[in-house]
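Quick one before lunch.
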Amino acid sequence: MKYPEVQNFINGHFVTSSGNRSIDIESPLDGTIMTSMRLSTREDLNQAVITAKAAQLHWERIPIKERVQVFFRYKQLLEKNSKELSELIAEENGKTLGEATAEIDKAIELTEFACSLPQLVAGESLEVSKGVECRIEHWPVGVVASIVPFIFPSMVPHWSLCNAIALGNAMIMKPSEVVPLSCQRIASLLKEAGLPDGIFSIVNGDKEMVEAICDHPDIDAVSFVGSTKIAKLVYARATSGFKRALALGGAKNHLIVLPDAHAEMTGSNVAASMSGCAGQRCMAASAMVAVGKSDHIIEKVCEEVKKIIPGKNLGSVISRQAKERIERYITEAEQQGARILVDGRGVKVPGKENGYYVGPTVIDYVKPDMAVAREEIFGPVISIMRTDTLEEALKIENENPYGNAAAVFTQSGGLARQVMEKANAGMIGVNIGVPVPREPFSFGGWNESKFGAGDITGKSSIEFWTKLKKITVKWNPESRTNWMS
Ligand code: NAD
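Model of the nicotinamide-adenine-dinucleotide complex:
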């Protein structure tokens, strides 16, 4: 096999899991088996928690300005190794090299943000009565865990690990069992950057390891990113053990296109949003609501979509099952009367016949009650619904149970403002198909796309990864005493 067996990373060392069950790690680009991975046991997790707990007690005593020096060095290592890291992401996940490089760029941006945390967590202090001072300090939560999905093998782990560790926590990462290799490189680069042993650990596994993390009494907080069904299970299980939890779920993002929208800009944005990362991202456009006379824009969308070629500027989807699921959705919509304007079914990439490719697909005349309109397809597919008014379009968007992102395409500031106010989603775009907020703005959806308070990145994450200590001090005996201080 091309890569050695996937290892856990515990107390600063790569170690073999004690589990007996093993799975193959496959590259979806061409179906080759890259390596294998043993699923870890509760004992492996326990070892990781014991060493993390001991290491965290020292780590939290180091002033944050010193702690973040690790991330200044780590950022340089990400930059230096960007090409190799991107190639690994592309190989294990199936995305294009350009998309994988963008993922490393984003990991660098997240690391930069962590480097700025000392400026953001400077505490507050005030003389609250004569000679009496109140002060607020941010303290780490302790040993925390992060459970991540397959879609961004490097970026999503960086959403949590940089801020959590810079803020004084020790982190245990549970990578997706489908793409565990990038996390191995993250661990080795963090070590090279000087992160003390035990502060970052990896415990590989699947459902059982997720349950073990939720149940472990010495893990104080859990962040999760993945599908809504599992996000709900993780949130409920972790909080029932009195842990902090933040669980990000799936999405069904609507782009509302008004007839006055700039046709070229809208066409290229819609095409890029629905097909980037083969539509396997929680910010992908999945439904387009075309308001009024928008045929000229739909034509532009199709024109742009036809420029997207599987195996060239479109990566593979993650697995054979994913390809079959996506193609089933398209066929079902067709059977229910929708029109397939661009059809991505049955694609084969020459030289990569065993890869899992789905071509970009545009489905028109979709009705809001069809499965392609309601459910997360997670493939390069856009379902177009047509309405006469903006109110009807907003009703369709509002009725969807998810709430990650929504966007409007128009040249009218007033109409854009209506969508900004009335769309029922946490991240809104105006003439932008993938409205990901960049640091220092935080990332997170609403409704069935997120469970728990606050967001996972940016300033909002400081609340999640720290607890506040409130200190009241009086030194001078002459200061007046009242019942409050
Ligand atoms: P997934 O929910 O299948 O897996 C995510 C994690 O949960 C993995 O680490 C996996 O090992 C674990 N897991 C899987 N089944 C489990 C079970 N039954 N019990 C406990 N744990 C289990 O998600 P995925 O397929 O890896 O990723 C795709 C999903 O992630 C999509 O729904 C996508 O929208 C979502 N996602 C959301 C965001 C966001 O920010 N909201 C970001 C990226 C991806």
